[in-house]
Design a protein that fits this description.
14 strands
Length: 194
């Protein structure tokens, strides 16, 4: 029986984040972000279609640059963070669509509502880098980068607040674009996958 080459990675929270944008007042986009996204990836480089990925976002930490808007997004009108402080994604269906492209499908949970979502993922490569702990470089540690995008209908997750503006327009669009940038670090003791 052949040994598995499955590697385990963790998302480095300080270098992993998610952003979203929605149309505002029918004329422009408003963006928001979440930092310190936590997650993990298990993948065999020879069989990427069997990869598994998990990510957790702390929705209480939404940031748009406007404290009033951030508070409104945290309220029951939008994210309802008092009852649903975290969002989760668990992906286990992967299809390779080019040398660095993948479609990763899994379950996204927002506001307690779980729906299947597909992210278009671009693999950005790997590099051996320093690894600092307590002021000492314990590296090198292998890092890999990924960028994932999707478009969601916010109503599918119960995020349905809105108001009307002149000529039948709305304050917030139904569709929301999402980008997640991941810096994953190979766990200690894992095989070199160059």
């Amino acid at each position: 029986m052949a040994a598995t080459k499955t590697t385990k990675w963790f998302f480095e929270p300080s270098h992993t984040g998610a952003e979203f944008r929605a149309r505002h007042m029918m004329v422009t986009y408003v963006r928001g972000q979440f930092k310190n996204v936590h997650g993990s990836l298990e993948v065999d480089p020879d069989e990427p279609e069997k990869a598994r990925v998990e990510a957790v976002i702390d929705a209480t930490q939404v940031y748009t640059g406007s404290p009033e808007r951030d508070a409104h997004l945290r309220s029951a009108d939008f994210f309802d963070v008092e009852h649903h402080p975290t969002w989760r994604f668990a992906g286990s269906r992967v299809r390779q669509v080019g040398s660095t492209g993948f479609e990763v499908t899994g379950d996204l949970t927002v506001r307690g509502v779980t729906r299947p979502v597909t992210f278009d993922v671009t693999y950005l490569g790997q590099w051996d880098t320093p690894w600092w702990e307590d002021g000492r470089n314990l590296g090198p540690r292998r890092r890999a980068g990924f960028s994932a995008t999707t478009r969601l209908n916010r109503h599918d997750f119960g995020v349905s607040w809105n108001d009307v503006v002149d000529r039948g327009g709305v304050v917030v669009s139904d569709m929301v674009d999402v980008v997640v940038d991941v810096e994953a670090v190979l766990e200690s003791g894992e095989p070199d996958v160059r």
